[in-house]
Design goal:
Blueprint: H1 2-7, H2 10-29, H3 36-39, H4 44-59, H5 67-70, H6 78-83, H7 86-95, H8 101-110, H9 114-129, E1 136-145, E2 154-155, E3 163-172, E4 178-183, H10 197-205, E5 215-218, H11 225-233, E6 237-240, E7 264-269, E8 272-277, H12 288-306
Parallel strand pairs: 1-5, 5-6
Antiparallel strand pairs: 1-3, 2-3, 3-4, 7-8
Length: 307
């Protein structure tokens, strides 16, 4: 509870309480007969209890269960009913707010994330400042399931949820702690000229760790040769898969007939190394053992060259 209050500091919960109460008053004025317990103003303790129930439902994998079943005395968890009733829980989820709704529509024309940006920045800064990561950091994207109205909602058919908001995240590889994150806003997420989006996102998320000699691991959406070179200049190393049609990859390196099946080939360019392995069946073969073996050989070769 103490650590939750560190991440969700008083300024965040105070802002949520003010904006939620403003929405509750609007609804309460339009209801002639209402139950006092359901339509009363909320407080900071109740908002923390609401967040706690949402976290607990995720831990217990009840986030896809109907609310009526969650709060049912016979099958539901007693902790759900300890803070509020089912009707009050649904009402708070309907009214919870993070921004001034009177001016929100105008600001969202320029920034689709305007309704959450203020609280988001405070929360992400707390995540970065309250944890010291290890030597390995991982970057990837995550689709947060959401089917409501949203200007930057995405459809990705190969994801379990399919619809949602895409967030680019870097995490500590050992503990999976989220260190930094950035929402993908569609066309509004514009990198500088002549810079790939994956390159721009990776550099922005890893800025707090420049010069720390940590290693970043990413998939082929983020990886490029200019990104690896830029990281070396900033005091970081990078390991990741790369798409074969990248302009930095020579055409001879993408010709499968030049390589024997299950044979690993290493190419060196100053401080950058490219590992190529031709697989007869990509879906059934595990590349990790051979990759680790090649990397061990590479480390031994570098040690010998230093000697």
């Amino acid at each position: 509870m103490d650590y939750l209050k560190v991440l969700l500091e008083h300024s965040i919960t105070k802002e949520i309480v003010e904006k939620t109460n403003a929405c509750i008053r609007i609804i309460r004025d339009h209801v002639q007969q209402h139950a006092k317990a359901t339509f009363k103003d909320t407080c900071e303790e109740e908002i923390l209890a609401l967040i706690g129930v949402l976290l607990l439902s995720g831990v217990n994998k009840d986030n896809h269960v109907a609310t009526e079943e969650m709060f049912k005395p016979t099958v539901g968890i007693p902790a759900y009913r300890s803070g509020f009733s089912e009707r009050r829980f649904c009402f708070l989820l309907r009214c919870i707010g993070f921004d001034d709704r009177a001016t929100g529509h105008e600001r969202q024309k320029e920034d689709p994330f305007a309704a959450e940006s203020q609280i988001w920045e405070v929360f992400i800064n707390n995540c970065k400042q309250r944890y010291y990561p290890g030597e390995n950091i991982t970057i990837d994207e995550q689709l947060l399931a959401f089917r409501g109205r949203c200007g930057f909602r995405m459809y990705i058919p190969n994801k379990p949820a399919k619809y949602g908001m895409k967030i680019m995240v870097i995490c500590d590889s050992k503990s999976s702690y989220m260190l930094n994150a950035m929402p993908y806003l569609g066309k509004k997420t514009k990198p500088p000229d002549a810079v790939a989006l994956g390159h721009y996102v990776t550099m922005e998320l890893c800025k707090p760790y420049f010069g720390s000699n940590r290693n970043i691991t990413g998939d082929n959406w983020f990886t490029s040769v200019p990104l690896v070179s830029k990281f070396l200049e900033k005091g970081l190393t990078y390991v990741g898969t790369i798409r074969k049609y990248k302009c930095e990859i020579l055409e001879e390196m993408t010709n499968r007939s030049r390589f024997k099946p299950r044979q690993c080939t290493l190419l060196f360019d100053n401080n950058t190394t490219l590992l190529i392995r031709c697989c007869p069946n990509k879906s059934s073969e595990n590349l990790l053992p051979s990759f680790i073996q090649c990397m061990d050989k590479l480390i031994i070769m570098k040690r010998e060259s230093r000697k």
